[in-house]
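Troubleshooting: if your tokenizer reports a length mismatch, compare your output against this known-good record of 360 residues.
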Amino acid sequence: MGYNGNRRSPLSRLILLSDASVTQTDRIEAIVEDQNTEASVRAEPADAGGSQSTNSSAPATVGRRQAIQRKKRAATPALAPASAPEDEAALDDPALYLNRELTWLQFNRRVLHEATDPRTPLLERLKFFAIFASNLDEFFMKRIGGLKLQVATGVRELTVDGRTPQQQLNESWALVREIEAERDRQLPVLLEELAAHDIRIRGYSDLSPTEKEQIRSHYLENIFPLITPQVVDPAHPFPFISNLSLNILVSIQGTPGEETNLARVKVPVGVGIPRFLQISDRNHFVPLEEVIAHNLDLLFPDVAILDHDFFFVARNAAAERAESGANDLLELIESELRDRRIAPIVRVVVNEGMDAVRKG
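Known-good structure output:
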């Protein structure tokens, strides 16, 4: 058997010769070493008994290898500890955060997008419009209401995104107007698509005499008994307007030449009364507030109805109490609900074309 003790393989020799940490002298010694080793292998006769012959140059070869390895280890630089990047951002950088109020409005914009997406089933799109409106009411009650309280109490502390309460109010109002403009553009498109399936929301003035008589009869029998008009005069101050209520502001005059008075009529939506009344057995509907407005003679007999407008009110619902010191949780909840009923108004929506004097 030939010599195979300390012979260097061609691959190890190639690595050694290409290592930049090994000096030129070491490379030459490695080449001479390999040549001597190969020559000794060729000159060594095979042992008849199958045993290997000893090579006198093997100990010297091993010694040179060890010396070369020690030089390589000494020439290899130690790894320096990793240092923190110089441009690492601070955790209090406002650019790293989004504003809570503005992102909530962007979320509601995505709800509106579902209402306008033609891939969404038609009646589901109508539901998304309703969800969008309900979400916006809640936003004003909770988020805008809370910001108004902070502004009123003089809070100037910045949020994590670097905005004051007043800045958040201004930017929220701007975004709300932008989203509502988009809603006003898209809702007529959906109503036209519903009309193509003979599902219509009609105005009271568009009804036929027969349909008007039918709706008036239904209103007189089922809704009229639930309505109590409230007149505003020197003896009766302006009435309390409940939260999330839809109202009609009516101008009346007793006799010609008398002073004009205002009256408020609350539209009794809820408690089993739908917002839209169905006409006959068709999928045609008329808004309840229009039915009331065109039948005000039932509420105000013997007086002249001069004008009427619609308005909607949302009140602040951000008033919260600390629950830790409460002895009775039920009493705490009841008290908070009572306060919400009389909380400050945060939003008033009126119909288009309302007289500036009546707006106040």
